Amino acid sequence: MPAHVDSIRLVAAASLVGTTIEWYDFFLYGTAAALVFNRLYFPTFDPFMGTLAAFGTYSVGFVARPIGGIIIGHYGDRIGRKSMLVLTLVIMGVATCGIGLLPTYAQIGPWAAVALVALRLAQGFGVGGEWGGAVLMAVEHAPAGARGFYGSWPQIGVPAGLLLSTSAFALLARLPEDQFLSWGWRVPFLASIVLVGVGLMIRLRIVETPAFTRVKEERAEAGRPIVEVLRTHPKEVLLAIGARLAENGSFYVYTVFVLVYGTQRVGIDRQTVLNGIVIAAACLLVAIPLCGSLSDRLGRRPVYLFGACMTALFAYPLFWLLDTGSTPLVWLALVVALVFAHAPMYGPQAAFLSELFGTRVRYSGASLGSQLSSVVAGGLSPFIATALLPYGRGALAAYLISMALVTVVAVSLASETRHQTIG
Hints:
Blueprint lengths: L2 H38 L6 H32 L2 H20 L4 H4 L2 H31 L5 H26 L4 H8 L1 H5 L1 H12 L6 H8 L7 H8 L1 H33 L3 H29 L1 H14 L1 H9 L3 H28 L7 H15 L4 H8 L4 H21 L10
Helix pairs in contact: 1-2, 1-3, 1-5, 1-6, 1-9, 1-12, 2-3, 2-5, 2-17, 2-18, 3-5, 3-9, 5-6, 5-17, 6-13, 6-16, 11-17, 12-13, 12-16, 12-17, 12-18, 12-19, 13-14, 13-16, 14-16, 14-19, 15-16, 15-19
């Protein structure tokens, strides 16, 4: 087997394992916000307002993501991709384990919520800096005709992390209610420290990307990457923000808000909804690399636009199927939404956004566009959707459609990047 093939497979595997662990950490919070935090950290509110408050702290993690993207991206473009990936993994692991050890409102009063917000900020900072480095390690190592496929490997870490975190909660949710609320919910958070140790061993084995190595050898690093990317690629940053809006916003509606909608509005057992998310996440493990590979053949834009259009077309049927309360139909709704609407956007995304920027500022550019969008999309979508809950499925569908329309416009205005050189 050629050495470069063996190398890219090692890099792809390392990117997958590392991002799986980081997203496992990040998604644990979302599930806990929907099921636990409103009762343990905001018990003075009624259930609806407590859920809104819990999702408010959930959104804080997204506010920190652009900050992590800017700071970590700066050093990723100055020092290298690999070292930043090690740093972000440690940050995420410590913050997640800290949440698992955190006293509740009953023990320390309002300071419990303050500490929860601080640890969520650390999570957001870590994952905001991690994404750009993980996808660049894969994309910059990949052969020119397979960047969509190999770039999708760190993206697989999202459903893999979702699968692990939701499965952990689904398993522990079988405990009696008092045991689950007293200690059961903490176990998945504390288990993160073991996963981080495994991830570090793997990430320390990979080498720096060829593209960045050439920049270092030529002493051509950007002095102030974030300033340079805003000066030379402002259009690309805006297009990246728009491209992510539907993908990121709808994903958290499908995987976080759906727990609130199913349990509080429809009256579905939480285990049924959690199992549906697990099934859909398992399907994404295949759908994401398939869509990434398709983008190598058909182009980034056609595949991405298909996903955005499906997000709009399936917005109303999604909530209609959930409203039936039928377990098979609820599961079908989640699988269709994630496989046919989300995956066609998320599979090509790593290659698409990376190819928009030059090597000197690629970490900063891809991170900035991606993470700024995450604030208004993924960070606010469960909160906005919960606020729209009293207005019914029509308002919720309109919210998804509006995000999809922005993404359709942004991707339509972007250039096709499949044949772009990234050296």
